[in-house]
User: Fold these one by one.
Assistant:
Number 1:
Amino acid sequence: MWVTSMPQVWDEEARSRKGDDMMSPAPAAAMLGSLAGWLSRAADPPAPKLCGSPGGPPVTAPRVALRDGRHLAYCESGVPKEQARFRVVFSHGFTGSREDSVRATQEVAEELGVYMVGFDRAGYGESDPNPNRSVKSAALDVEELADALGLGPKFYVIGISLGCHAVWGALKYIPERIAGAAMMAPVVNYWWPGFPADLAAEVYNKQEVGDQWALRVSHYAPGILHWWMDQSWLPTSTVVAGTTPLPNKRDAEIRAKLKADGTFQQKMELATQQGIHESYYRDMMVMFGKWEFDPMSLPKPPCPVHIWQGDEDGLVPVVLQRHIASRLSWVNYHELPATGHFLSPVPGLGDTVLQTLFGNAKQ
């Protein structure tokens, strides 16, 4: 009974929210908090299987060593970095990998002189986990990767979906290093203070019940997220399961094809080979946890910033993206009609992103 009744408490508390306590259901938060203390001790996630360790997955990709001893695996594309006019670090989304990109054509990359490096974010693929992962650490990983590869004093960042938290982090923590930024269908945190409480609560409650609970646990009781997601009798994330209703036809067809030919499962196995907690679940805890800053309170950065968003996105509410754009006058907002969440496969969009970022840019 408590699982099905608590969303009602959520709604009531959301309507009475004051200040920064948006959607903070007192009974729900208190219950999750008390459960977290016991369950975090009783149901710790299994230790990660580090790449290159005995019994762990092999290291097959080039990697850079970070100051804290971790490694990041990466994949280069475009023109050789020594010949590039523009150097880009790409941050993949939820379930993604170092091999993801904006899918621009090689012809456009060569015409513009673009070098791009994608990397497995911490805990994904062949990059070492970071038990202290945060929005700030994501930004610093981007900076360390760029420095290790010699990308120069300034470089560009592009993020997609949940991977855009690293872009927001870069704009917050290392703005002097960023020459330009682009975010494609960036995932939002419903608890960012800049969102009107009633609007955030309204769209939050339109999600599937399992997604509401997965985000709620990620925010209020991250210590029990692994345990929660492992319980078949509890409402859990449809995004992880790949069953979220997708209103956009192209999105639905793409996902159906990926699941039918086994690509969906293969991508999941590669992304989570060191442990699903260190990849997927830490992503959820970082993205939907308590941020140190509100992106809507950021000052204007010393570089152009672009956001692309589909108006039929079934994972990121377009109304919240519009609100962010309305709050940040320095964001160049591009809304795509009849388009969903999966932007990389949109014909020609990868080329458009690069041409927008670099077509009139000065080296």
Number 2:
Amino acid sequence: MSDDDTRNKKTLKEGLPRDERAEGGSNGNVPEAPFSERDAAILADKAQDHAGAKPMAHTPHGKEDIAEGAKPVPRADSDDEEPLGTYKKIDPQDRESGAHRGPARKHDDPKTKALKPKMRPALLLAEYRTPGECMHAAEKLRDAGYTKFDAHTPFPVHGMDRAMGLPDSKLGWIVIAMGLTGTTLAFTMMYWMNNVDYPIVIGGKPPTIASVPSMIPIMFELTILLSAFGAVFGMFHLNRLPRHHHPVFESDRFRAFSNDKFFLSVEVEDPKFKLDRTRELLDKTHPSHVELVEEEV
């Protein structure tokens, strides 16, 4: 055996822990196995680590001291890449900029921050325990000149519309207009068809205005039909429906409005709305809770 092999065996024996050396046999010899010079160098570094020596980095150009802050590179699968135990030196500029730490985390990415929705104030929501408190608060808002506010109660509260200063509903005018339109349309249609376009005598009734009694059923049907259409679609228009979402539903406390709580909401579109003044006015009505509800821009 050559001197180099004897030196490598000795290095291998010193680089292994005590338990691993004992497994070699009763005399402490390590079983002979072929290994390369690179493996011998790695084991030599291991022995130096046990002895407290400064680790060395193996590069294609020889051994170099490991720079402070250097990080190890894992074993490469290809022989073309650097072997196990190789360390890369960190550029001082990268150390200052933090580039050696890898890509930024997701919540630190400026693009991710840009995707977060922007919020803006939508309304002030005041919660009350009783319908009386809610009605008195509505009167305060009405007297202060607010017009774009609403009451949310689990059941109809008699007198709330008067407390809010709401005028009589316009829905009745829409219904009567549509009903008269149906009556007129039915009479005109039948008079034209039976007396002008194609006159015909039915049941001894002459094709004149005297045959109006025979038109009553159709006139009644069209009156009711168009009145119903006017009531439904007029209600949708006056209530600005359908509206699939309202900012008030962003409040978790608002879920109790259909159970046992009473709410007043003042929208920011109200000409009198000023965040500080409106909140101060609501606080004077002694609500159990007041919050600012926001919505996405």
Number 3:
Amino acid sequence: MTIPMKPFHFLYYSVCCLILLSGMLYSCQSQNPDRVILEKLDRTFNASKFYGPKIKRSEELLHADVKSMDKKELKKVFETAIFKKDTLAIFNSEGSLPTLFYIESTAAWGTRKLKPVKDFGYRYTTVSYNEEKDTVAILNGVSFPALTMAEDKNGEFAYLYALKTSKNKDDFQNIYNYLQNAFTKLTLQDDAGSGIKGWENKDFYYFLHKKNRREEQIFSFGEDEDDKPTTTDITDIRLEIYSKIYIQNMQQEQVYLPDYIPIIK
């Protein structure tokens, strides 16, 4: 026998379903399978889930038989971004740093023969990419073609570095404006390094770096150079986002961190 649901219970059940559905939709929006929407980044971000298909595809391409491919297939391979996964561990600094320990990949040149103090987690890196065509992260309409991200062994987000080389002067300003309006500005130490800006919210620290330089133009054969500038203004942009939990844990364990990161008491 079916018992009819009372109006109040039905309303309560409907509201709960809507809340659950909204949460699922938000989670899907914040973790796009192809790119990271940095405005919606939160502590639940699953780095291994995001990078898993990319790592698998990269390994397939690196082991592919290029000799059997035609020009179209080869072009697609060379235009596809390549990613790699490293194991991170904590090593003894042996007095080379102001802290007792540092964190690094176990496959790095300086650590591959060393015994780590303990394992930490994993780091995912964009190894090769097309600066003009690839997008792996976005912030305030500005695309980043390269992204490095780390997680601990429990899958908790640790940090990310988003990189971009831009010929558009507005790109850096658009990133800066968003961070300035969305978060609380940090007062960094005088010796933290020129050009570094910092902000925070309840979960993360944000640091924005830039380096201005000039790049010589490369012209195609037969192209007229008379009316074109020989150099182009370039801005190298680096956005760093650190989990406050990660920072606190590293400081407690005396693991080396950049000087501009505040001490969490």
Number 4:
Amino acid sequence: MGRTAISHEYQDIIEASAGQNPLEEIDVEAQVMERVEQLWLMRNRPTAWKVRLRKPTAMFSLLMVFLLLSVTAYAAAEYIQIRNSRGEVKVKYMEAEPVQQSAHVGNNMLRQQMESKALAFAKPGELIAYYVKENAAEKSAEALKFVHKEQRLTAYTDFSAEIRRTGAPMLPEAPEGYSFQYGNVGPDFPYNSPMMQQELYRETLNELRAQAEQATGEQRLFMKSVPWTSPLSVSAMYAKGGGFLGISAQMMHGGDMMVQQGAEEQAKKITVAGTDVVINTLGIGPDRQHHYLTWYNEEYDAYFLLTSYGDRTLSEEKLLKLVEELLQ
């Protein structure tokens, strides 16, 4: 059972892409994919929260925007909630919390250095397990770390095959006449003691520790590729003229989602084909707005996001029509 919190800071990108001098496709794509969404995955343990930061990769970051929403139609005590068929709250909107700086700056810098080396070692699509020698302060569950190197699948046949391999939700090939540009499926992987008890991860940690103990010289990083089949996320980017369409889903694996709400934006909940859908409205000027939609899919236990941006965008009505098609 876990909890996921998401955040985004892409208002400036939307403003740029909607301005008098629209950004070229490559610039919009790079900025949106890098900045649009950063993902924090939090899952609870019996006595404490376990927080894992997964740095956004160019495509994987489209996965989940941190929906800094304001719900002006709701009182402070009546934030939007989405429940499953059993009445359990799966998605909960809450007041935005201030970002706190970590006190472990040195450890974070070391981790970033080791993670960068592991990414350089990885092939596209690979999940790399790595172990850092002489980091005795870390508990056993934290000793083995993971990094995934994004693989942009530019052929829809390859993308759909990867979706079928992992059991992720299938995304369409050409929604609303937009052409498929690329897609990505991201892996789930362990982060706590119970999950680390799986044989694959126990053996991997023991193997890398043994290499570290036998190593001579100054080598500190030990790593290997590990197989994966369980998805954490799936996302796809589409284009039509100067417009872009993004569809993404994050698997919740039995957990729940917390969405922080800022005071500048608006959200309202409606029902589409029997499913609660949140229409998020982001102001990008005195008379311009950007809409993106989010919803919970109980069949996949996944949180979906649909966004349209660029020189041409889908209206709220067309976005809702597309959501209805995706729900069929």
